[in-house]
Write a structure and sequence with these properties.
By secondary structure, this protein is α/β, with parallel strands linked by helices. It has one domain: Rossmann fold (3-Layer(aba) Sandwich). The protein is built from six helices and six strands. Strands 2-3-1-4-5-6 form a six-stranded mixed beta sheet, with helices on both faces. The longest helix is centred in the middle third of the chain and has 11 residues. It is globular, with a radius of gyration of 15 Å. It starts with a strand and ends with a helix. The mean pLDDT is about 80. It comes from Parafannyhessea umbonata.
């Protein structure tokens, strides 16, 4: 299974998604520190919201196979800059959470994630389980190994993931 690194604002649903992927009962738990357990790395939303500690996210990302930007479907704005994928050397996916909220604007959030450069975008609702199976199936796919020569060739081409 791919190791998943979660980034997003406070209340975006990172911890709830972690619980849903594990098949656990959802319960509110404020993430106070970066929590790496098994196949998931859960980070406090404040890391994405604060420039002073945001650099720490880049350091933690090296421990993962896939980086997921989480944005709730009812967010009024995003903290992620367009083309933010350019500073990563891992696969970047987008996860739109809270898709069944009454004020959800999935199309707008999808556009934000496309602008970031996400390779794939998943729509999920951790409370109902909608979309969790599709995301889990993606994460269960084997990580494609890369030789040193392939990595060097990609680096010469300017491709990092």
């Amino acid at each position: 299974m791919k190791r998943l690194f979660l980034m997003g604002r406070s209340e975006a649903g990172k911890t709830s998604l972690t619980q849903a992927l594990r098949g656990e009962r959802l319960h509110y738990h404020k993430t106070q520190y970066t929590y790496a357990d098994g196949d998931t790395i859960d980070t406090p939303g404040e890391y994405s919201e604060t420039k002073a500690v945001g650099v720490g996210l880049a350091c933690f990302s090296f421990e993962a196979d896939v980086i997921a930007l989480l944005i709730a479907a009812n967010e009024p704005f995003t903290v992620f800059a367009p083309n933010c994928k350019s500073f990563l050397n891992r696969t970047l996916i987008g996860v739109i959470t809270k898709i069944n909220e009454p004020n959800a604007n999935v199309a707008m959030v999808r556009q934000w994630l496309e602008n970031c450069g996400c390779d794939r975008i998943f729509l999920v609702d951790s409370a109902t389980g909608e979309g969790i199976g599709e995301l889990r199936a993606y994460l269960e796919q084997d990580v494609e190994p890369m030789t040193l020569e392939q990595a060097k060739a990609r680096q010469r081409e300017g491709v990092f993931c």
